[in-house]
Amino acid sequence: MEAQQILSRFCPKPSSLLLPSHKKLHTLPCVGPKNLGIQRLGCSYTEGKKKRVFCVRRTIEEEAAEVKVGATMPARRKKLAVFVSGGGSNFKSIHEASLKGLLHGDVLVLVTNKHDCGGAEYARNNGIPVVLFPKVKDGSDGLSPSELVDTLRSFQVDFILLAGFLKLIPVELIRAYEKSILNIHPSLLPAFGGKGYYGLKVHKAVIASGARYSGPTIHFVDEHYDTGRILAQRAVPVLANDTAEELASRVLKEEHRLYVEVVEALCEERIVWREDGVPLIRSKDNPNEFC
Q: Cα separation of 40 and 56, whole Å?
């Protein structure tokens, strides 16, 4: 009863307003008190010589049901750029997942600092353009940071995925793609990260430290090595007699799984930011849960 009385102050009675016939169909949104379960009120009218206004009352439950339905609808396919310096196994797993329909996105361009690396060869064999960055010293090959930004914009790239790219990302690119650049690192950051920690060097350091667990970390990229906000991690046990190669192999398998899962969430717009700046992944099955 109280809700009805309050509603009457927001919207007129069905018979109280008449609109000229030349007016077009429209909706007038207004917001009601949420503590009464009233989420939104809308005024619209039916066709006729005179168009009569009436009120549409929608509850919080109805709004929630609509949001839930909307959340299942696929977003626009995202356009991805991948950066590599070596074999590009993570790049390959992401590209293959896209081809299989597991991702709502497509790899449109590969960026590398080594034009003859395995990742670049795979890209060429699959019809993906290869861009050289940074510019080679004393040479004409390669792009400058501003040229790289322009090139990625020409491809209308939404997100940048670093997959074993060993060069520091320039400030120009970070500013142009704020909160849109991800990197994967083969240890549980913030441990064993930073300049010089890559490849087997990471796994040797983990084993030497006596750590019982390692594993991949995916984080957003800032202006320094491996210091951006952590988005996802996966723990891998370090066995008593592990070699760096054995540990690297187990971590790499988890890298391939984890990166595809994160890119899937990225393409489906399931990354949300907590008030304190921590990124979270919204569950695909339950939008009220986070990974």
A: 8
For residue 176, count other CB atoms closer than 10 A to its CB: 19
Q: Report whether 247 contacts 207 (CB < 8 A).
A: yes
Residue 160 makes CB contacts below 8 A (sequence gap 6+) with 80, 81, 82, 83, 152, 173, 177, 180, 181, 182, 221
Give the helix ranges, DSSP H, for 46-191: 60-71, 89-99, 118-125, 145-154, 171-176
Whether residue 186 has a cis bond before it, omega within 30° of 0: no
Mean pLDDT by 10 residues, the chain (291 residues): 44 39 38 37 40 40 40 74 97 98 97 96 98 83 95 98 96 97 98 95 98 98 96 98 98 98 97 96 92 82
What CA–CA distances, in Å, run from 152 to 146, 156, 176, 241, 265? Answer: 10, 6, 10, 45, 22
For residue 124, give every residue at least 6 positions away whose Cβ sits within 8 Å of its Cβ, in sequence order, or none.
Answer: 130
Annotated active-site residue in 185, 203, 219, 256: 185
The residue assigned the tokens 């060869």 is 121
Answer for the pair 96, 177: CB distance below 8 angstroms, yes or no.
Answer: no
Q: How do strand 18-19 and strand 51-59 relate by DSSP bridges?
A: antiparallel
Active site residue 256: no
Per-residue tokens: 34: 């949420």
